[in-house]
Specification:
Layout (H helix, E strand, L loop, with lengths): L1 H24 L3 H10 L6 E7 L1 E5 L2 E17 L4 E6 L6 E2 L4 E5 L2 H26 L3 H35 L3 H30 L3 H27 L1 E3 L4 E6 L6 E2 L4 E19 L11 E5 L7 E9 L11 E9 L2 E4 L2 E4 L6 E7 L3 E7 L4 E3 L2 E8 L6 E15 L2 E6 L8 E5 L8 E5 L50
Parallel strand pairs: 1-23
Antiparallel strand pairs: 1-22, 2-17, 3-10, 3-16, 4-6, 4-9, 5-8, 6-7, 8-10, 10-13, 11-12, 11-16, 12-13, 14-15, 17-21, 18-19, 19-20, 20-21, 20-23
Helix pairs in contact: 3-6, 4-5
């Protein structure tokens, strides 16, 4: 029993010694080699490059816009009333001042007739006062004056005779008083007749004529007012255009200000409104000729002219674009009995703005890496023409597109002659090592920016594998008979 325990203890000690010896002697060397390989420097990324250049360019900006009317009017009713006549329909071409609708006119016409008759009366009174008294009236007044003058003279003579009789022969005192009374009365009557004659000859006073003229003028204004009210009941086109919407029909009641039709001025000229980014505004000039492309018409290219750059963006809503209006001459065609404009409101249009020639720094458009935080590219650091180097990131602001190049608006780190990464930039890290691939790749070779596949392992290149337990050389450790039966 003692021998068995001794043998078992010696066997376990030998096993532990073998495991410890394997650990110290490097049984784990292959795994250590693989870790060392994983923690080493990354291989150079394979990229293609292009050059930064400086050229004379005419920047071109292409913006999608919308065709709108040169002017649009929502024509409204000028009075309250029922529509007696609605003379147009959607799509009709109307001339300036053409009648669109008519409201009921019965009470308006009666009011105008009454006012005109009263005006005639006041006009006649004024003319009579201005012309003076008729000759016949003057003759009548003169005759009455002369008759009273005769009566006055006879009464005076009788009074004188009566005075003499009373003085000479003692005539009656009553007769003298009667003669005196009649003489004085005749004088008064003559004076009244003469005054009436003078008034008749002089005619109306100037103040009365002015008053009559004021009454006549007020009535004229009243007639003009009623006729203007009548005109408000006739809705007319404010300009030549096309009816694009109907808002009423015959028999409908309209209040003052209710819409009748919507009229668009699109026959001779239309406007294209394009929202241009603030960075592209330097390339635009008021009065410059532009090219407008409309896919919805048979004629695709339309010449236009920039007429307005609205000096206000929708910055409250976060937009930094500015509305630009382009005037385009329209064309009309006959469609049955109607005249139809070719360019109509709402059509999509592409506007090509071309700015004046400037010197610009250009980079290949494939070199720009775009992201939500901004645009950048990678510049190759190293000797000119070297096949390797480091990739330095450079943040930039894009400008106009010129063929396969892009204008750089703001970047002090770019200058003509620099090399920039055009393929493989998306996976680069700042200042990563890069290997520049040639511009041409043999047919069937790897694609741009894709590293070649590793060659298959050979006996010379295959990594050494740890030997199995069967291949281990025998050790000098003595065998144990711990497992042998006694």
């Amino acid at each position: 029993m003692t021998k068995r325990r001794t043998a078992t203890t010696m066997g376990m000690a030998g096993f532990l010694a073998a495991v410890l010896g394997c650990t110290v002697s490097g049984c784990n060397k292959p795994q250590a080699s693989e870790a060392a390989a994983g923690g080493g420097p990354r291989p150079a990324a394979k990229v293609r490059v292009g050059l930064v250049v400086e050229e004379e360019i005419s920047p071109e900006v292409v913006v999608v816009g919308t065709v709108v009317a040169r002017r649009t009017s929502q024509v409204a009713s000028g009075a309250d009333g029922k529509v007696d006549e609605f003379a147009v329909r959607e799509g009709d071409v109307v001339d300036e001042s053409q009648l669109l609708s008519t409201l009921n006119m019965v009470t308006t016409e009666l009011g105008i007739q009454e006012a005109e008759k009263l005006l005639q009366e006041r006009q006649s009174v004024l003319e009579e006062m201005k012309q003076g008294t008729r000759p016949e009236v003057i003759a009548e007044a003169q005759a009455r004056m002369e008759a009273n003058e005769v009566s006055m003279r006879i009464a005076q003579e009788k009074y004188i005779r009566m005075q003499k009789i009373v003085r000479d022969s003692g005539g009656s005192r009553n007769d003298l008083d009667d003669a005196q009374e009649k003489s004085e009365a005749a004088q008064k009557l003559f004076a009244a007749a003469k005054a009436n004659y003078d008034l008749t000859v002089a005619g109306s006073r100037a103040e009365h004529i002015v008053q009559a003229q004021a009454r006549r003028d007020a009535q004229q204004d009243q007639v003009a007012f009623l006729k203007a009210e009548k005109e408000k009941r006739l809705t007319r086109a404010p300009f030549k255009g096309v009816v694009v919407a109907e808002h009423t029909q015959r028999g409908q009641w309209l209040s003052k200000g209710d819409l009748v039709v919507t009229l668009a001025d699109i026959l001779e000229e239309v406007h294209v409104v394009a929202n241009v980014d603030e960075r592209d505004l330097p390339h635009l000039q008021i009065g410059s000729e532009v090219q407008v492309e409309v896919d919805a018409t048979t004629r695709k290219i339309w010449p236009g002219k920039v007429i307005t750059i609205v000096p206000r963006s929708q910055w409250e809503s976060g937009s930094r674009t500015f509305p630009v209006k382009v005037a385009v001459k329209n064309e009309v065609v006959q469609a049955g009995d109607r005249t139809v404009p070719v360019l109509t409101e709402g059509m999509a249009a592409r506007v090509r703005f071309r700015g004046p020639q400037i010197k610009a720094v250009l980079v290949p458009k494939d070199s720009i890496v775009r992201s939500e935080i901004g645009n950048k590219l990678f510049v190759i650091l190293g000797a000119p023409g070297a096949a390797s180097g480091k990739a330095k990131p450079v943040v930039l602001t894009e400008g106009a597109f010129v063929g396969d190049k892009v204008q750089v608006l703001s970047s002090s780190d770019l200058s003509p002659g620099m090399r920039v990464v055009t393929e493989g930039a998306e996976r680069l890290q700042p200042f990563a090592d890069v290997e520049i691939m040639p511009d041409l790749i043999p047919t069937g070779g790897p694609s741009a920016g894709t590293p070649p596949e590793p060659a298959p392992a050979t006996p010379e290149t295959a990594p050494a594998t740890p030997p199995s337990a069967a291949d281990q050389p025998p050790t000098d450790q003595p065998k144990t008979d711990a497992l042998q039966k006694p």
